[in-house]
Write a structure and sequence with these properties.
- A three-stranded antiparallel β-sheet has the order 1-2-3. The protein has a three-stranded antiparallel β-sheet with strand order 4-5-6. The protein has a three-stranded antiparallel β-sheet with strand order 9-10-11.
- A hairpin with a 4-residue loop joins β1 and β2.
- 30% of the residues lie in helices and 28% in strands.
- The protein is an alpha+beta fold and 168 residues long.
Length: 168
């Protein structure tokens, strides 16, 4: 069994429907099985059926390939581009169940952190504490840099914006 799944192997295992964004199991080649009986069993049970399952409340789907779980949108990215994505694959419309390729884009953690808005404050990198104070932070070189605590959203946002100019 392969430890690393190449995009071409993914295309051998799965069929991607561009209109719906869904995956379907293809009939697997016998070379991937220890014997003819297990090959016949697997194909009779799975070939032609939907692949992946919804695992998270946000609608994200995962798929189990050779005893490793993968996010469906990352698998689709690899199948369509011929390479595994970098840090993060995001959904343009924010709907994690919409895995049409034109809805996906590859991004970095830094870009992702900058675009995330918290529900409590509406500002990226600004988080409310239980004490009603606000924390501002920014993601830099793979770690979170805390910018301090503030009494207002405006002050925390200004600290965050200043840090973005410094760390760009």
């Amino acid at each position: 069994m392969p430890k690393f799944l190449s995009p071409s192997l993914l295309r051998d295992l799965l069929e991607y429907d561009e209109d719906s964004g869904n995956l379907t199991w293809r009939e697997r080649p016998q070379r991937l099985f220890p014997d003819k009986r297990s090959w016949a069993w697997w194909n009779s049970r799975y070939a032609g059926k939907p692949a992946g399952e919804t695992r998270l409340p946000d609608g994200s789907r995962t798929i189990k390939l050779f005893d490793q779980r993968h996010q469906v949108h990352r698998v689709i990215w690899a199948m369509q581009t011929g390479r595994w994505p970098g840090d993060i694959v995001r959904h343009r419309d924010g709907d994690h169940s919409n895995n049409r390729f034109d809805n996906l884009y590859d991004t970095t953690r830094v870009e992702c952190q900058r675009s995330i808005r918290t529900s409590a404050t509406g500002e990226p990198g600004v988080y409310a504490l239980k004490s009603e104070r606000l924390v501002a932070s920014i993601w830099v070189n793979g770690r979170t840099v805390y910018l301090g605590t503030f009494g207002t959203v405006a002050a925390a946002r200004d600290a965050r914006l200043a840090a973005e100019r410094v760390y760009r």
